[in-house]
Design a protein that fits this description.
Elements lengths: L8 E7 H9 L10 H8 L4 E9 L12 H14 L3 E5 L1 E10 L13 E10 L1 H14 L5 E5 L6 H9 L4 E6 L8 H4 L5 E4 L2 H5 L6 E4 L2 E4 L27 E2 L2
Helix pairs in contact: 4-5
Protein name: NYN domain-containing protein
Pfam family, one: NYN
GO molecular function: RNA nuclease activity
C-alpha cells in the first residue's frame, strides 16, 4: 500500500460469467474488453494494482455457435498480454439431468412430468474469487478490494473482509436497466458504482495485439453490431475517464 499523498491502491475481482450475462451478452462490440482500462476508467481515484478475472473455458455445444470457444480462447490470450491481469479458470460442465418439465405438467398419478435435459454450468469460479479475495485481504495487499459482480453468493466473503479482516470493499455492478443485488448492497461497501456502456466503449483492446506466439486479432464477430455503435476504438484512444456512477 502507498504512503501519504499517493492515491489509495485497489485490487479488482471480476466475476467473468456474471459480467457476460449481465452486461456483455448480446453486445458483441464490447466483448473485446480491456479489463485494466475498464478498472482505471471506473476507479480514477485509485491506483489499480491488479485485476483478477475468474471464468471457465466454454465448450462447443450442439446447436450453438461452434466458433464461440475459439473467440473465448483469443480473448483469454489477449488478457494474458496485459501486465496487471491474472486469469483464474474454473470448470465448465455439461451434464444430462432429469428435471421437471416447464411449464409444469402432471401425469396420470398427479406427479410432475420429468424430462431429460442438458444442463450447462460453470463450477468453481465463485469459490476461487472468494478465496483469492480473502487471502489478499489477510495479506493487506491493497487499500480497497473491489468486486465486479451481481451474484449474491459473494455476500459472505465481502462481510468477512470488512468484519473480520478490517478491509474496505467496493462494489461494481455489471447491470444495465436492472437493479443491483440488494444483498450485495447491504454489505455496506465503501461505495457502489455501476459500469456503463460508455465505460465499456472507452475500454476496448486494440484490434491486434502481439505475444510471444504471434498476433492476436479481435474476432470479426465482435467487430460490429447493428444495434450498437460500430467497432469501438482501441483503448489507447479513449477519452478522459469519467469514473462510472458512484452511489454513496
Amino acid at each position: 500500500m502507498d504512503g501519504a499523498g499517493s492515491p489509495p491502491t485497489a485490487l479488482v475481482y471480476v466475476d467473468g460469467f456474471n459480467l457476460y450475462r449481465q452486461l456483455l451478452e448480446g453486445q458483441p462490440q464490447y466483448k473485446w474488453l480491456d479489463l485494466t482500462a475498464l478498472a482505471d476508467q471506473v476507479l480514477p481515484d485509485y491506483r489499480v494494482i491488479g485485476v483478477r478475472y475468474f471464468t471457465a473455458k466454454i465448450k462447443q455445444l450442439p446447436g450453438k455457435d461452434a466458433s464461440a470457444p475459439q473467440r473465448q480462447q483469443a480473448y483469454l490470450r489477449a488478457l494474458a498480454i496485459l501486465e496487471r491481469v491474472e486469469v483464474f479458470l474454473g470448470k465448465f460442465r455439461v451434464d444430462a439431468r432429469i428435471m421437471p418439465k416447464h411449464p409444469i405438467e402432471v401425469d396420470s398419478h398427479g406427479k410432475p412430468v420429468r424430462v431429460k435435459v442438458k444442463k450447462t454450468e460453470e463450477k468453481g469460479s465463485d469459490v476461487a474469487l472468494a478465496s483469492r479475495l480473502l487471502v489478499d485481504a489477510m495479506q493487506r495487499k491493497a487499500d480497497i478490494y473491489v468486486v465486479c459482480t451481481n451474484d449474491s453468493d459473494l455476500v459472505m466473503p465481502l462481510h468477512l473482509v470488512q468484519a473480520e479482516l478490517g478491509g474496505d470493499i467496493g462494489l461494481l455492478s455489471p447491470v444495465q436497466c436492472k437493479r443491483a443485488s440488494n444483498e450485495l448492497k447491504q454489505t455496506n461497501p465503501r461505495w457502489h458504482r455501476q459500469i456503463t456502456h460508455a465505460d465499456l466503449q472507452r475500454s476496448q483492446l486494440p484490434d491486434v495485439l502481439t505475444d510471444k506466439y504471434g498476433t492476436v486479432h479481435r474476432p470479426q464477430k465482435w467487430a460490429t453490431n447493428s444495434e450498437g455503435p460500430a467497432e469501438a476504438g482501441p483503448s489507447n484512444q479513449r477519452p478522459k475517464p469519467t469514473g462510472g456512477v458512484p452511489s454513496g
